[in-house]
Amino acid sequence: xxKDKRSDLKVFVPLCGKSADVHWLSTLGYQVLGVECSEIAVxxxxxxxxxxx
Length: 53
Fold this sequence. Notes:
Largest sheet: 2 strands, parallel
InterPro entries: SAM-dependent_MTases_sf, TPMT
Protein name: Thiopurine S-methyltransferase-like
Organism: Priapulus caudatus (Priapulid worm)
Keywords: Methyltransferase, S-adenosyl-L-methionine, Transferase
Mean pLDDT: 89
Shape: elongated
Radius of gyration: 12 Å
């Protein structure tokens, strides 16, 4: 039988902006790759989620 481990699953979130979904998916155990072109949005995301970058 196949394993169903979230840590084995990768989620790609293009143009994620400041979306809290990236952090939420990560807290559920998924490997998350968020891509954003706006440096302002990326900095705001890390500040709002209180995550060191």
